[in-house]
Amino acid sequence: MKRLTxxxxxxxxxxxxxxxxxxxxxxxxxxxxxxxxxxxxAEKAMAFDAVVASxxxxxxxxxxxFEAAFxxxxxxxxxxxxxxxxxxxxxxxxxxxxxxANHVLxxxxxxGLEDLVFDLVPDDGSSPLRDVVEEKFPTxxxxxxxxxxxxxxxxDNNTATLVELIRPRDLDPDLGPQDDD
Length: 181
Hints:
The protein is of the alpha/beta class. The protein has helices spanning 28-43, 57-70, 87-95, 112-120, 128-135, 168-171; strands at 2-8, 50-53, 77-78, 103-108, 142-147, 160-166. It contains six helices and six strands.
């Protein structure tokens, strides 16, 4: 059994229209959301064996704020393939994770992360949390999946159970849902 936690980047800033999408930073709400999720991960004593993340600025800043609140260094592997990737590409990235990593944290973007949940978790009515993701997987949301595999190369559709979904607004009502994109 492997465990996969997905963290969508926190709320980004759209004020400077001259920036490329890749270079957009977090806004103030995003910084608060990333910190709230890091505090939550610390309270739950989450421990990640490996971290893989998009190198986009909004992801790197999400990790910085998450990490500061989490209290542990994450040392992510920055993988450009994750930037705006499809679920198929994200599965390929995860299949390359070392088998010694029993709990992987992937930090990236929608719609790829949301679609990854849809592909990995069966759509058979058995997962109320999957239904919540279908409504919205907002910025800074944290989803934890248990994956019924022994080696990451075995990762495939319908191999996971969504065991937890936490959104920033679940931790602080001021962090949602007025701007949950």
